[in-house]
């Protein structure tokens, strides 16, 4: 709760700061442009914070690290191009590397790059983009790394390490996490008899989100979990698991809720909408939290260049403050990476537990309560 409140406060403070100082920066840019125009010179360098922020949080067909200009004013980019795979019913398949677009300056095979989207030059052509974007590539890489880590742990257990002897290496990291998810998430929400059926799903969700959260904190990497498409797929998968796991009691509670007849119709609508609001909450919670953290970090770094546009001395003077906040936010985001993975897995277990919960009969509860209340007084009491 403290982390969430601190994060909200930082968002508010720096949003207000950017709003206030952007007006000053904009006014100075206007004055600079007027002076340059009067002097007959060219417009100087202007830092575009919006472009930097959106280029980081949005998907793209390349990994872009930095840009620079040579002495002749020609701009160069340090990028890692990715494969472009396009299919058009009119033109067939097209395969090439994204570097052929030259950052949107060239057309390739009748296609051009507009921002981060590939569109056909001919408006009558339909195209389906099946390219390996940076989010897809990084997600695959995260899956490979996760598979290698877990498979190495499994091999050690097969050899008896961690069973007949003390665990070693990554076993000391993975085993406490698995035990924690089992004891604190799966068993309390799914029950002792049914948790084993859904534990692999809960663990897969947790580790998959966690490793993508951690990879997203690496400078130059993609923010996969801050992409709505990624969280949407996880939400839809969880929705399908909840829906197909629902028992008779779950569906009867939705379409025949135990309420007075006067409010029955309203409660049916509310309960039916809850089927979709539960996965929607999972989708938006993970997406918004991971996106907000990355935006805050980029805004903190951008403040150096915004103040530097006002005055070089102010830019250098504010740099230590900005870097200190960035380091602090990185530690907060590392904590949030674990928290958001846990929350998604925990809420998924809660929703699945509601779907598989059996009906409770009042008579059974009364009999159980009676036994518990009389058990204390079975022994004679000496007064």
Protein architecture, described:
This protein has 383 residues and is mostly helical. The protein folds into 2 domains: 67-132; 134-360, no CATH class. It is built from 10 helices and 7 strands. The strands form 3 sheets. A 3-stranded antiparallel sheet has the order 4-3-7, with no helix packed on it. A two-stranded antiparallel ribbon has the order 1-2. It has a two-stranded antiparallel sheet with strand order 5-6. β1 and β2 form a beta hairpin. α3 (134-158) packs across α5 (195-216) and α6 (228-245) packs antiparallel against α8. It is globular and about 80 Å long. Mean pLDDT is 80; it is low at 1-44 and 370-383.
How much helix is in the residues? 55-70%
Largest sheet: 3 strands, antiparallel
> What is the string of SSEs from the N terminus onward?
HHEEEEEEEHHHHHHHH
The stretches of 5 or more residues where confidence is low (pLDDT under 50) are 1-44, 370-383
Number of domains: 2
DSSP summary, beta strand count: 7
Strand content: 5-15%
Briefly note the structural class of the backbone: mainly alpha
Distance between the termini: 50 Å
Tell me the strand order in the biggest sheet. Answer: 4-3-7
Radius of gyration: 28 Å
Number of helices: 10
| Mean pLDDT over the residues | 80
Shape: globular
């Amino acid at each position: 709760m403290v982390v969430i409140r601190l994060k909200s406060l930082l968002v508010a403070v720096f949003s207000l700061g950017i709003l206030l100082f952007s007006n000053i920066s904009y006014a100075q840019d206007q004055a600079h442009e007027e002076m340059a125009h009067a002097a007959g010179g060219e417009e100087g360098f202007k830092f575009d914070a919006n472009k930097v922020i959106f280029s980081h949080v949005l998907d793209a067909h390349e990994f872009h690290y930095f840009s620079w200009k040579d002495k002749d004013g020609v701009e160069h980019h340090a990028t890692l191009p990715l494969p472009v795979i396009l299919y058009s019913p009119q033109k067939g398949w097209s395969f090439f590397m994204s570097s052929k677009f030259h950052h949107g300056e060239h057309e390739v095979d009748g296609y051009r790059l507009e921002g981060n989207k590939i569109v056909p030059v001919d408006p009558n052509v339909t195209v389906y983009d099946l390219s390996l974007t940076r989010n897809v590539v990084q997600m695959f890489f995260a899956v490979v790394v996760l598979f290698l880590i877990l498979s190495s742990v499994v091999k050690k257990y097969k050899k008896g390490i961690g069973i007949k002897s003390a665990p070693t290496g990554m076993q000391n990291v993975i085993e406490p996490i698995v035990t924690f998810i089992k004891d604190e998430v799966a068993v309390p929400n799914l029950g002792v008899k049914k948790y084993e059926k859904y534990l692999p799903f809960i663990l897969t969700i947790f580790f998959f989100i966690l490793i993508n959260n951690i990879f997203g904190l690496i400078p130059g990497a993609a923010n996969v979990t801050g992409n709505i498409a990624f969280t949407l797929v996880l939400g839809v998968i969880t929705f399908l698991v909840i829906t197909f796991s629902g028992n008779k009691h779950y569906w009867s509670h939705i379409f025949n809720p135990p309420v007075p007849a006067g409010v029955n119709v309203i409660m049916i609508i509310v309960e039916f909408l809850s089927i979709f609001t539960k996965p929607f909450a999972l989708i938006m919670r993970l997406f918004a939290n991971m996106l907000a953290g990355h935006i805050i970090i980029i805004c903190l770094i951008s403040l150096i260049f915004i103040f530097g546009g006002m005055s070089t001395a102010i830019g250098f003077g504010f740099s230590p403050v900005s870097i200190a906040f960035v380091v602090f936010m990185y530690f907060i985001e590392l904590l949030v990476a674990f928290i958001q993975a846990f929350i998604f897995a925990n809420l998924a277990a809660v929703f699945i537990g509601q779907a598989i919960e059996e009906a409770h009969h009042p008579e059974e509860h009364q009999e159980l309560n009676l036994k518990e209340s009389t058990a204390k007084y079975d022994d004679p009491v000496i007064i």
